[in-house]
Specification:
It is built from 3 helices and 6 strands. It has about 160 residues and is of the alpha+beta class. It has a single domain, classed as 3-Layer(aba) Sandwich (Cytidine Deaminase, domain 2). A 6-stranded mixed β-sheet has the order 1-6-5-4-2-3, with helices on both faces.
Length: about 160
């Protein structure tokens, strides 16, 4: 039997343990929530990436009356980064939410599709992507995207013998 180990840390948002770039990452994720197009759910999500060249790339969720046509904040940011900076590694991602209709007492995690996309980028770049989920009071830090989706799907499972 193989042991599964998922590592994460819960940290107070007011902690002094965050670097200046992490604080900026959180602020940009909060700010980009305002750009969300969420007229149906009133659930705004913001995601900001930190690339290896210290550039920040942000995205917000974009809904559509035909629900499958919408896109999550995480994939908006990831696709923008890969489209514009295909050779730069993603170092960190911060994800947060805002809503008038929901009381988010805990940070919200990415959906399964976003976890899979994030994980594939992590595998492709051959280095971990730190993941920060946060709200007004709490931060949950994962050292790598694989910890969000331990039984992930890969191309290797598609190849025929």
């Amino acid at each position: 039997m193989q042991e599964l180990r998922i590592e994460f840390m819960k940290i107070s948002r007011n902690s002094n343990s965050f670097t200046e770039s992490e604080r900026a990452l959180f602020k940009k994720a909060l700010d980009v929530c305002e750009n969300a197009y969420a007229p149906y759910s009133n659930f705004r999500v913001g995601a900001t990436l930190l690339l290896e060249n210290k550039l920040f790339i942000s995205g917000s969720n974009q809904e559509n009356a035909s629900f499958p046509c919408g896109i999550c904040a995480e994939r908006t940011a990831l696709f923008a980064a890969r489209s514009n900076y295909p050779n730069l590694k993603i170092i960190k991602i911060a994800i947060t939410t805002k809503s008038r209709d929901f009381n988010n007492t805990n940070p919200v995690a990415p959906c399964g599709i976003c976890r899979q996309v994030l994980l594939e980028y992590e595998i492709k770049q051959k280095s971990d992507i730190e993941v920060y989920l946060f709200n007004k009071e709490k931060v949950i830090k994962f050292n790598k995207a694989k910890d969000l989706l331990p039984f992930y799907f890969t191309e290797e499972r598609l190849k025929r013998k």
